[in-house]
Amino acid sequence: MLRSLVLFLTFLSMSAHGADWSVNSQESKLGFFATQVGAEFEGQFKEFSSTITFDETDLANSQVKILINIKSVDTQNSERDSNILNAEWFDSKTHPSATFETKEIISLGAAAYKAKSLLTMRGVTKEVELPFTVQIQGNKAHAKGELSVSRTAFGIGQGQWAVGTVVGDEVRIFFDLKADAQ
């Protein structure tokens, strides 16, 4: 009886331990793919914080919130990076961060999921669905996902930039996160 109780308590502590995750920012990427004059480029946000509770056996209580520092954008082009921050684009003085927050996580089977979420950029919040995968081995997790959004639906690209002739309207947001159980 005592042995069964010890095993049960060990199982509970392992389950609770595996539900909260800390992202390893050195091994993770959060960014986007966009097009400029027909050529695709990649941008990354070098600074972001996250609160992640994920348990594949308890999706109802799993949730993710990510806060992105817009000023940490890096597209490997300093002129483009500077322009992205100005009032016509992200307006980082007024809106220094973007947020992603899940409302519901649904299993699609075989380590695949869909997150019904709220994405806020430039002060505009839209509902989005993010397909993603998670591989968990012991105390390590690796999650990847991507979704496409219309930048103009978030007010990104004002004035002459509101048309997709120079900079395309569709932007693919991606993440490749590695995390450790807390």
TrEMBL record:
The lineage of its organism: Bacteria, Pseudomonadati, Pseudomonadota, Alphaproteobacteria, Rhodospirillales. Residues 1-18 form the signal peptide. This is YceI protein. Residues 20-180 form the Lipid/polyisoprenoid-binding YceI-like domain. The keyword Ribonucleoprotein does not apply. The keyword Signal applies. Keywords: Signal. InterPro entries: Lipid/polyisoprenoid-bd_YceI (IPR007372), TTHA0802/YceI-like_sf (IPR036761).
